[in-house]
What we know:
By secondary structure, this protein is mainly alpha-helical. The protein has helices at 14-23, 46-55, 57-62, 80-95, 113-121, 139-147, 158-170, 172-185, 191-194, and strands at 33-37, 64-68, 102-103, 132-135, 150-153.
Amino acid sequence: MDFSNVVQEVLLKGMVTLQHQVMRFLTNPHKPMILALLRPDPKKNLTTLMKAFGECRPLRELANLTLIMGNRDNIDEMSTGNASVLITVLKLVDKYDLYGQVAFPKHHRQSDVPEIYHLAAKTKAAAHGLPMVATKNGNPVDIHRALYNGLLVDPHDQQAIADALHKLVSEKKLWEECRRNGWKNIHLFSWPEHC
């Protein structure tokens, strides 16, 4: 991967629009942001993340949740599986009264992805200094082993997800350590390292 387009300073003009799209959802946009950038696909386990966030009051008091779930104009025009996930997300926002705490903008461009990570990091994700909470299954394990930039959890264990997110957001030393490790070790995933 080529990380030459990663900028550590305030980013491109597109960020203003994207930032506005996200911030308009949030009552307190100054809280740290938990970011999920994924398709609203049933396999992505988004509903478990929503339940973990919704049922963990200490986490909700510390942070906002931003869901970048692809692009949509009309839920009725989405595939059945994606529409079902999005409708479930909306129902969970209502069930846990997460209005003002969860952002889910309708549109973003592929070129916005670095800005999305930068917006969440303020302070792929490791290249922007963003600690991760990821599944303990599959590729994230190898990434974590190399970068040590976050925490791994059982993706089906709602409490483990909430605990890991809360730990990262509440323990500033851990956040900074994961952030530094990501920055320091991201070169291991650059194209020259694979050649």
